[in-house]
Amino acid sequence: MTKTIVRTDNAPRVPLYSQAVKAAGLVFVSGQGPYDPATGEVAGDTIQEQTRQALKNLSAILEAAGSSLQKVVSVTFLLGEETDFAGMNEEWLKWFPTDPPARQGARLPARPKNIRISIAAIAEA
């Protein structure tokens, strides 16, 4: 099996893991928080703002891999608080209005820099 590491400056980079890996015709995107790639700071205070930034980061990585949000087949999201679920869904529907990917969610075990959400995805390459 051949794997390709995906990197882009249009999303935050963490030296401990790859932004994404392409293998077996799929793109596996690491969890993306609401960090602005230009500043490294958390983008926004509300769950809607943070969800939007996490999805922008996810989209940028998928584009760098030659894929897109439209090719996402599965998502795992982690929320800081269970009460953020409705607000996350509000923003989510703007990005996936029809035929959304399969998804599962859980609560963040830790909240670095007060992030409220992290989103990982698997997409067709």
Automatic annotation (TrEMBL):
- State a single Pfam family of this protein: Ribonuc_L-PSP
Highest taxon above the source species = Bacteria
Query: InterPro entries from the entry?
Result: RutC-like_sf, YjgF/YER057c/UK114
GO-annotated molecular function:
deaminase activity
Which SUPFAM superfamilies does UniProt cross-reference here? YjgF-like
Taken from the UniProt entry, a GO cellular component term is: cytosol
Entry's family note: Belongs to the RutC family.
The protein depicted here goes by the name Reactive intermediate/imine deaminase
Q: From which organism does this entry originate?
A: Undibacterium terreum
